[in-house]
Design a protein that fits this description.
It is a single chain. This protein is an alpha/beta fold. It is about 45% helix and about 15% strand. The protein contains ten helices and eight strands. An eight-stranded parallel β-barrel has the order 1-2-3-4-5-6-7-8, surrounded by five helices.
Length: about 220
């Protein structure tokens, strides 16, 4: 299985489709997030799905359990391969999200965003460092019955050890020659894969490359 999912973080449907078409032989699927979804809605997701690539719908749902469950139900016609919710929404929200999802959809819980470091967590009242916080939320997600979590490559090894069967999504993945951008906790694709990542989410190193297909192929070769 190809672990690479390319992040199509653009509101431009034509651009997203063109990139997906270009890289489809070198990736395992595509990630569509808030920027894309708010601009194009379910119709846009259906359009990208016609290319035959699995869809990771990264909406990071976070609300009261009933609202999240109903939101997940509205997404059922899309049958995404993977759907994200926030682990900090609590056990009941996680349980209801999983119960509302289609049978073939993996529900994964976002732990600590890769754009946050210890200082950022302290500023919002979380005293634990990112590593401890991720492990804490991973255990909550596991016990709530969702399929896995989203965490940085710095934590994925420890989470994989504690939850060997968890589906572990690692964003903020950057080839060694790429800039970190707005990500603060990054690793290379090979390091994340070797540590136990089930899915590697890679955006700008592919989508902003002069030749996205060649960039995706080169990253694929490192795995």
């Amino acid at each position: 299985m190809n672990k690479i999912f390319v992040a199509l973080d653009t509101p431009d449907l034509a651009r997203a489709r063109a990139v997906a078409q270009a890289v489809k032989r070198h990736v395992g699927g595509v990630k569509l997030g808030l920027e894309f979804f708010l601009a194009n809605g379910q119709a846009g997701v259906h359009e990208i799905a016609t290319l035959g690539l699995p869809i990771f719908l990264d909406l990071k749902l976070h609300d009261i359990p009933n609202t999240v469950a109903k939101a997940v139900q509205t997404l059922r016609p899309l049958a995404p391969a993977v759907l994200t919710v926030h682990a900090s929404g609590g056990r009941a929200m996680l349980e209801d999200a999983k119960a509302a999802a289609p049978a073939g959809t993996k529900v994964v819980a976002v732990t600590t965003l890769t754009s946050l470091d210890s200082d950022d967590l302290r500023s919002i009242g979380v005293a634990q460092d990112p590593h401890v916080q991720v492990l804490h939320l991973a255990e909550l997600a596991r016990s709530a019955g969702v399929d896995g979590i989203v965490c940085s490559g710095e934590e994925v090894g420890a989470v994989h050890k504690a939850w060997p069967k968890g589906f572990l999504v690692v964003p903020g993945v950057r080839p060694a020659i790429s800039a970190a951008g707005d990500q603060k906790r990054v690793v290379t694709p090979r390091a994340a894969s070797d540590a136990g990542a089930s899915m590697l989410v890679i955006g700008r190193p592919i989508t902003q490359a002069e030749d996205p297909a060649e960039a995706a192929r080169a990253i694929e070769a490192t795995l």
